[in-house]
Amino acid sequence: MISSPPQVSLHRHGVDDIAVLLDTLADIWTDAHTGHDDVAQAGFTSEALRRQITGHTRHEEFVLIVASLADQTVGFGYGFHCTPTYWFGEQLLPAIEPKARNTRSLAGICELAVRSGWQGYGIGTRIHDSLLAALRTEWASLLAMPGDRGAQRLYRRLGYRYAGPYNAGPDGPVLDLLLLRTRH
């Protein structure tokens, strides 16, 4: 982290803005994951991201936060309100902390990506905090690649705790399900 972070502006967007922003979001995501062979091997691609975002726009209270620096878009994150059963899945639900398992106030944070040249400046933290402020839930949860040390370090610093292994489909990778109590 540098001593004086860049002056990044954060902008909140909703479902109606996705069509215009989708190419930019896919470009940021691709740049953020350059050199992460485990991501590609797990089947995560910019095309999969496009399908994922488009599918997630049907969720209630979908929120997208985009970070810009001057005229360059440098990062984004999005999430939405969801039920514990939807987010954790029937198999993992019994292993989740009871207060989180039974909550009616859960946000699923689906993506948090910052261009590789802008990582380490606190932009991801600002996007994350802005997402949580917009979603206003008691709990937040996200999935992380087990081998992504940078992301894992960020999420630990933000207060997330490991909640269990999450199998991303029959042929998909096993990801780390992380959980954060946002309000006590």
TrEMBL record:
Pfam families: Acetyltransf_1
Organism (species): Kitasatospora putterlickiae
Protein known as: N-acetyltransferase domain-containing protein
SUPFAM superfamilies recorded: Acyl-CoA N-acyltransferases (Nat)
Domain N-acetyltransferase: 8-181
Lineage, broadest ranks: Bacteria, Bacillati, Actinomycetota, Actinomycetes, Kitasatosporales
